[in-house]
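Help!! Second protein's tokens look totally different from the first
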Amino acid sequence: MIPVNRNGEVWVFAEQEDGVLNDVSLELMGKARELADTLGVKAAAVLPGRDVKPLAPRLIALGADKVYIVQDRRLAHVQTNSYAKVVSALIERHAPQIVLYGATNIGRDLAPRIASTVRAGMTADCTDLQIQDVTEPRTKEVHKNLLLQIRPAFGGNIIATIVNYDWWPQMATVREGVMPLLDPDSSRTGEVIEETVELTEADFPLKLIERKVTERTVNLKGARVIAAGGGGLRNRENFRLIHELAGVIGGAVGASRAAVDGGFIGKEHQIGQTGTTVRPALYIAAGISGAVQHRAGMEESAKIIAINTDRDAPIFSVATYGIVGDAKDVIPKMVKALKERA
């Protein structure tokens, strides 16, 4: 168990593959900077891999005061055993007070292993992080500047706030896209610290024989325009209207959880607390009631057009423009008008 260190740093596990930093790690670096400033401590990144030192300046530009690197040719590809050993060793060596990971396949695999090794608590799939004083209900003891780890629970039906009083570091995985990617500041300076961790062949139980990489077919996070459909479209056939609209406006296709659960479209298109968080220039929501779980994933869009038959639907509370009507009637008219203007 790592002792409580109120002056400990705020860390981000800087996930990278083939020398490319994962977007969620870059997003988290900005959040770590914010948390560190609130606590009055330094922000740092932990960067294991092979020949990863050239990646350090980008992390510094995004807010890192320090970048701890561990370079080993055997770390070229992520293996849970070896990476967990590296990060756990650095945590025991430097005693940070907060460690953040992206809620990627790698982060979700790695973070629990590290938490178990250093005997720390860990909250998965957070959508927000804040610093606040917390009063322990049983003892009434006031704990200063704890990390509030905020995440959806019970299938996204409630929002839970989780705190960790005394099992440190405070650790969390954070969903992609929920933290804005800050603009880099190339004038920032930071310290690159080369660390060594003794690794044996036993730490590399897997042998990579062949590697195949499949590119992501849906990039909602990077889309400037999104047309999204919900359960109000009622069936897969009607949902084709969303594809047609997206094609006309040059946008990506999104969906609410109700549409995905109804089998109208695949889960990779889902937007909201249990899907992807997006911030496009234009978001068109058709047949989406606007439950809080969905709004949390899209309400920061620059402009929102909502189409719904229910004039009291919650989606209109965040919409820039609202159209009260049946999407099956409205969308064909929109498509026709757009084609005539083209």
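Here's the second one for comparison:
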Amino acid sequence: MIERSRHMTATTTTMKAVVQDGYGPPERVFRLQEIDKPTIGDDDVLVRVRATSVNTPDWITVAGVPRILRLKSGLRRPSTPVRGSDLAGVVEAVGKHVTDLQPGDEVFGSAWAGASATTGTFAEFTVASASQLLEMPTGLGFEEAAASVMSGLTALIALRDVGEARPGTRVLINGASGGVGTLAVQIAKALGAEVTGVCSTTNLELVRSLGADHVIDYTAEDFTRGEQRYDVILDNVMNRPASATARVLAPAGTLIPNSVGNTGGFFAGLPRMGRAALMGWGSKDVRFVTCVVNRENLAALAALLESGDVKVVIDKTYPLDDAAKAVAHMLGHRARGKIAITV
């Protein structure tokens, strides 16, 4: 855990950041460089980043495949060269319209689609919209707070809003040991659901320890061939055909394919997501989840973290200059929980 500090740094115009100068293996395209510190707009906040984490959109943009996605991100290199969106840190400066945050405040949230953001969070400083930041949850270190944001909000929205899980709801989480999965197991239990987690042999005890009522070892058993039926299936892996997964839905059940948490290969899951979408227009209820970062959702996540009902599982923490190793770790698709980066 990083020791917190309210110490403010001297004013500078530059900062260290990990810059992506092309597409390919992270160790080849990442460079630790000195770049200009980002400027803020009227509704923005400049944050000194203390920790961030790696998410699926980060490694997708690093890999740059399939190439068609480069039409949006940049043909030869990303137009926004610094990866990362999750953050926890200390407010350095605020825009003139921001009245409820001030320099020295410890915050967590996201720089995703910030109003004036020109950089991500693999950097000493970043800019985020004030509407996407909240006071740090009490009792959490910077790594845990940062690592909770995208994965935690995805799990929360999927189960609370999309799946409408409540006491007695039978929830199956495929990929229960990953970044979204570890948080989803705990959030589902906090909502009162009966939870089944699907993971590998080596992660069975981890998933049990998070509160899962039942665990399935996918190396020994195919959950899509079982007799149990589920009201909600959150599929973070999409390693089974959507039709097979939907077979174990209860009559009024909901299938939620999740690309944000897909550590089994995002693009391998795209055809199955497409088929799942088509199924949603027929007899099966298939709904997709969008990670919405706002203060209301952050407050709900913070309450779960502060209560102790939900804890962030961090597989490994890397320093900023090892950000390439952090992304490569996630690309290996074997992470237990989240991968954090300290700054």
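Reply: Different proteins will give different token patterns, so don't panic. The CA atoms of residues 231 and 253 lie 4 Å apart.
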